[in-house]
Amino acid sequence: SQAEWEQLLTNCSAFLFYGMERFLSHVLLDWLVAMNIPKCRLVILLDLVRSQQSYQRIANSDFHKSCLRIALERPTETAMLLSLTGVGSVLAVQWYTSLEENAERLETLFENLLRFGKTTGQTVHALQK
């Protein structure tokens, strides 16, 4: 529920979304832009995974949205919206991907951030290789 999303985002210093399609297709845009979440220093969005089922669900959902609203759900716009709510840094994929590729990204993220203690910037650099 939206209340659960709000509680998670306002009570954490880092938030990881690992899911299908676009992050903002799961969260109400009006609700997100009204939030103030300065305690959340890092949001990691491992979204944009597409399957036939998820594509059909998102296509049905997008049918009822304006072009402007759909544009606001793109990765760059999502990062800007999260930044405006107070999030310190946003790490996000830019293009649609597979479950396997996102699982590899997640493993690399955890390994670099938690195991090796690298900074977010160093971790992003490792992901780009």
UniProtKB/TrEMBL annotation:
Full protein name: CFA46 protein
Gene Ontology biological process: axoneme assembly; cilium movement involved in cell motility
Entry superkingdom: Eukaryota
